[in-house]
Amino acid sequence: MALSIRGFAAQSATAPLAAHTFERREPRPDDVVIDILYCGVCHSDIHQARNEWHNSIYPMVPGHEIVGRVSAVGNQVTRFKVGDAVGVGCMVDSCQHCASCNAGLEQYCEEGATWTYNGIDRRDSLPTFGGYSERIVVSDKFVVSISDKLDLKAAAPLLCAGITTWSPLRHWKIGKGSKVAVIGLGGLGHMGLKFAKAMGADVTLFTRTADKEAEARRLGADHVVLSTDEAQMAAVTRQFDFILDTVPSPHDLNPYLNTLALNGVLCLVGLLEPIEPAVQAAMVVLGRRSIAGSAIGGIAETQEMLDFCAEHGIVSDVEMIDIQDINHAYERMLKSDVRYRFVIDNASLKKAG
User: Fold this and answer.
1) What is the dihedral of CA 144, 149, 151, 157, to 10 degrees?
2) Which of 67, 99, 135, 189 is 20 to 30 A distant from 346 in Cα terms?
3) Nearest-angstrom CA–CA distance, 48 and 323
4) Is the peptide bond before 29 cis (omega within 30 degrees of 0)?
5) What is the rounded CA–CA span in Å between residue 34 and residue 50?
6) Is-contact 256 183, C-beta < 8 A?
7) Contact 243/268 with Cβ under 8 angstroms?
8) How many whole angstroms separate alpha carbon 34 and alpha carbon 85?
9) Regarding the domain with residue range 164-293, which homologous superfamily does it belong to in the CATH classification?
């Protein structure tokens, strides 16, 4: 029978999130039922709850940085057992037969991945609901294992902020001897610094805020460049093999392109809007430089990242909140008033009226 679940939902683009009861599907033979312990709060949750991407389905239960423990498994499930610490990220299904899926890159599914929330289940055509809730039911193919070596609450943002930065760093083979820069020090940027440093790269943070140097060095930066200082920017001309750009709003890429070495790559992971102002093509052509993009990561990549994190002791820097404080947390996020990711303690749902 279907499961009655407590959660928090947006009922419209203008309504604050509030307590909401809804139904999860009856578990299928390949499903894992997860009691959610923690759920990270991603900036995309705000975009979706407020219909800023013009595709929102209401009522909407956000949340795609989910960590919990298995409470039941279907009779076809062999990789997980009751009590296991597990995670669910941005996807809960894909076609599983296109070229992207066969390559383990389900996020680029040619038929479209099924998103953890604000999606439509491809088997029963019902809406998907996310991790701002007490329990979730997910196909075992889209569940990942989390080592108990990791602080589970601080591991939650690895399921989005972590994999979003890990995937491009791995794809472009960042390692010992690489010169990497990260633009922006937020939920994504702080993970980019940690990963690039752990991979052995020489790491620079580009920031517009002069007082972030000590914090950036704590997180793994070897150098900090104030991007508004022309002399500092000139000093790093043609320096970097790879730039990870985590800024979510339109900004001028040209000054950063000038800091790429021959064959260098600037990879966008935060921006989904048109690039403004226009890119000066000479910046790209005359250095055989590339502007690229990357979206989250596949399930195998995500497991690889989590195993790397367990080996190297890497988690996100988090601030814990109760679910009842989610609307205030959204307002703080819009002011960049969090270091560096809010995580919901889902036990607080028991207090929801």
Assistant:
1) -30
2) 189
3) 17
4) no
5) 27
6) yes
7) no
8) 9
9) NAD(P)-binding Rossmann-like Domain (3.40.50.720)
Structure-block tokens of residue 99? 């070229």
Q: Where in the chain is the domain with CATH 3.90.180.10?
A: 3-160+297-351
Residue ranges matching CATH 3.40.50.720 in the chain: 164-293
| E strand segments, the chain | 3-9, 18-24, 31-40, 66-73, 85-88, 91-93, 114-115, 135-139, 144-145, 179-183, 202-207, 223-226, 240-245, 260-268, 290-293, 318-322, 341-345
- Polymer length of the chain: 353
Is the separation of the CB atoms in 301 and 167 below 8 Å? yes
* Tokens coding 97: 């037969």
Place of tokens 């921006």: 271
pLDDT in single tens digits along all 353 residues of the chain: 677 999 999 999 999 999 999 999 999 999 999 999 999 999 999 999 999 999 999 999 999 999 999 999 999 999 999 999 999 999 999 999 999 999 999 999 999 999 999 999 999 999 999 999 999 999 999 999 999 999 999 999 999 999 999 999 999 999 999 999 999 999 999 999 999 999 999 999 999 988 889 999 999 999 999 999 999 999 999 999 999 999 999 999 999 999 999 999 999 999 888 999 999 999 999 999 999 999 999 999 999 999 999 999 999 999 999 999 999 999 999 999 999 999 999 999 998 55
**DSSP SS3 for 211:** helix
Structural fold of domain 3-160+297-351:
Quinone Oxidoreductase; Chain A, domain 1 (3.90.180)
CA Rg, the chain, in Å?
20
Q: How many CA atoms lie within 13 A of 60 on its CB side?
A: 27
Q: If DSSP states are collapsed to H, E and C, what string results for 265-288?
A: EEEECCCCCCCCCCCCHHHHHCCC
As a whole number of angstroms, the distance between CA 4 and CA 22 comes to 6
Return the residue matching tokens 């690889």. 304
Structure tokens at 287: 């250095």
Cα 124 to Cα 45, 114, 117, 137, 143: the distances in Å are 24, 12, 15, 13, 19
Coil vs helix vs strand at 244: strand
Q: Which residue has the tokens 């937020």?
A: 186
